[in-house]
Amino acid sequence: MPVSKTILLIDDNAVNRKILARILSSDYNTVEAENGKEALNILKSGHHQISGIILDLVMPEMNGFEFLSIVSKVQEYKNIPVIISTANGDEKNEIRALKLSAWDFVSKPYNPKIIKFRLKNAIERSQLSAFEQLKYLAEFDTLTGIYNRTRFYSLTHEMLISNYKRKFVIVRFDINRFKLINSFYGSDEGDNLLKYIAKKLREMCSTLELASYGRIEGDVFAFCTLYKGHNSISSTIENLTSEIKHFKLSFDIVLTYGIYVIEDNYDPVDTFLDKAALTAKHIKGDYVKFYEFYTPDMSLKIEKEQLITNMMNDALNNEQFIIYFQPKYNLATNSPAGAEALVRWKHPTKGILPPGEFIPVFERNGFITKLDQYVWEKACQYLRKWLDAGLVPVPISVNVSRVDICNPNLVDILFNITKKYNIPTNLLHLELTESAYTDNPLAIKLMLKNLHDHGFLVMMDDFGSGYSSLNILKELPVDVLKIDMHFLSGAEIPGRSETIIAAIIRMAKWLKIPVIAEGVETKEQADFLSQIGCEYVQGYYFAKPMPIEKYEELISNKKPEFIEPEHDGFDISQILRCDVHIEKIFCKTTQPICIYEYSNDTIELIRVNSAFHKEFGFGDMQAFVDVLKNVHNDYRQRLLDCFAYAVKTRGSSECEFLQNYANNNVWIKLKLKYFSFIANRHILFGILLNITSIKEIDEEIDKYKTNILKNNQNINKPAVNDNAVSKNEEENNNYDVKDINTPKMLSPS
Amino acid sequence: MDELLERLKSEGCDVDGSMDRFLNDKEFYISCFKEVLNDPAFKQLGEALDDKNTKEAFDAAHTLKGIILNLGITPLYEIIVHIVEPLRVGKYDGVDRYFKKLTEERDTLKKNFN
Q1: What does the CA dihedral A619, A625, A631, A636 come to, rounded to 10 degrees?
Q2: Could you say which residues from 24 to 53 on chain B have a Cβ atom under 8 Å away from some Cβ of chain A?
Q3: Nearest CA in chain B to A116
Q4: Closest to A239 (Cα-Cα) out of A204, A211, A196
Q5: What digits encode the pLDDT tens for the residues A517-564?
Q6: ipTM of the complex
Q7: Under a CB-based contact definition with an 8 Å cutoff, are residues A589 and A611 in contact?
Q8: What's the predicted TM-score (pTM) here?
Q9: What architecture (CATH level 2) is domain A580-749?
Q10: Domain A6-139 belongs to what architecture?
């Protein structure tokens, strides 16, 4: 019988080892160890060669129990059967050893036949176990316990063939930026997430009529089930996503699903998965869409992206990414107030690639974190250079992508870079995109606090573009808001965008948050921003992003090279504020005053003082949005004429009108003064006087006059004609109304 | 060699019962026998008993019991059990006396068969 198996004999007594070696010599090779330590070293150097172990329990250095307890914990050693050698009658130790996963025991004095049988049986059992393990490994994913790629393919194929008349759909999904989870939270946390997903996938599939599922590789999972229409599979996916999102991790777990409705059940399963993978790639990075159905035209875009992905690492290593600077200006001082560091890709053969071509790709594949850190470091290098040259540089702002925000070490990374170049943190401003807030509000809030503690200034980029702008203002102590002037384009209702921008700037002023308008491209936009009191601007109209040399030239001149926007010296936002000066002239005035917006025969109140409320009560909100609503029908046109006159003459006008406040008729005398034209609306200042009591006295006097007149007529005409009196009263009234109705127009001031 | 084995049998050793373990290799048996009589465990047992170190004494006695059994040295086995069992429960009842007896018996064997 050829000898192929090796048995490790562990006993401190040389005679025992010799006897065992002799007993086993016809069937096995043997290696010997005097104690547990020596035996472990032998296992470490080649456990594959050891088919079984005979172990004495009482030994110096490391006894049999200690050895067993170590071996039982090492996955690779678990299949090596360990047989305990005990002295006769040592039951207590035998039980203890068996508990420690010893496979069997033999007693001294040795019985060669028994030793050989027990060893043979144990080795066979271990081989069977190894075979079962191999089978398991061949079919199951060891981490998650669900089917692996091979078994998923075969099961899916069997299911499709045996149900060849039915239509199926295959869904492939993965976790966006899973590598970041591993690197930020450690691979154990990443593994936990994969196990959790597998569990949820298994649970979900168990509820389906027919389904196969498995882990394909890494963070990629798939399932195949009956196709019951787009809506049905969409709903399944939405449910699964919602379940998976319950996994507790301060990282926005985003899954991307590619869906392929199988056309021919007999095609190979891998081709289905390829199509589903292509589909998933097509929507990677789309923050709205997380699943998509396959269409044949999806491959072109993917190829282009793949090309960029292939080149990105070399580009970073070879410093093909160049930093450009786009200055920001303070409109009040007409001087540079900072610059944004932007990245351009200077490709050796393709020339300068615009960021729009590669940034979205990098955001999808996670490379953006490397690029961002590169830009942060470069910005700090330049700041250091300027400081060394004795310049007083304006702050540089850098972008912090939504992917960076997930990095729990972000603040340390930024702080270490500034520390490395000895840059005061207030010179490196950070631009966070608003939409990142919706991903993980709590994490951002904590991160923002941490950034502030380290002295960084944080700008909220693209403010107003997300879904929770007001929440951000409420919850986050951001230092600066950036609004994009592209917001002005594409509004369906003319003037609406301008009004919103004006309102944002007004609101920011109340909150004492500076606003930078970016993307300013035309003189009209610049004028508009100046009129609405926007202090900081950035955009092509003022300066395009420029290479370092040009930017250095610009900051050394310290003079802006743009045409100053025109404005009339009046900043509407000033009168909307309730600061010390405005308090005096507006808030504390005892006469009711207000600010109107007027456009296309609609009048809105945008601010009133406390005296206004005191005089007229608070009314309903609708009265603010539509001032005419509560004005008596007969006086509406008069009020509109009064506004139209003030607007036309850019001057003042006044009129009296009857209005209903809290079910009471109130006569008001209004004096209007024109202020400005902003965002397609005219701004007018109004001073109101409640003249109801005066009007009541006037009415009494009129009645008195009428009675006297009637009495005089009666003296001459004894017969009473009621109709005639009534007509006369009407005429008199009409006369009064007309008289009052005539607006008294003041000359423009 | 056979004469030696016969003498061992006459001393009460279970040579026949043990030979199976030695695949009937008499020479191998005798070499092991001589090795056991010089086993360091005897010395370790004596020192441990002097030091009243129960654990080490038990370990040494236990080792000796195993090899004595394997070689079927019945005269020594009959003594060593009286040492192992009390030590297993941490007692010294008569252990010193039995150790002295064990040493004497071992020395006799050594004298006769070395």
Answers
A1: 170
A2: 25, 28, 32, 35-36, 39, 41
A3: B21
A4: A204
A5: 999 988 888 877 877 778 899 999 888 999 999 998 887 765 544 445
A6: 0.88
A7: yes
A8: 0.46
A9: 2-Layer Sandwich (3.30)
A10: 3-Layer(aba) Sandwich (3.40)
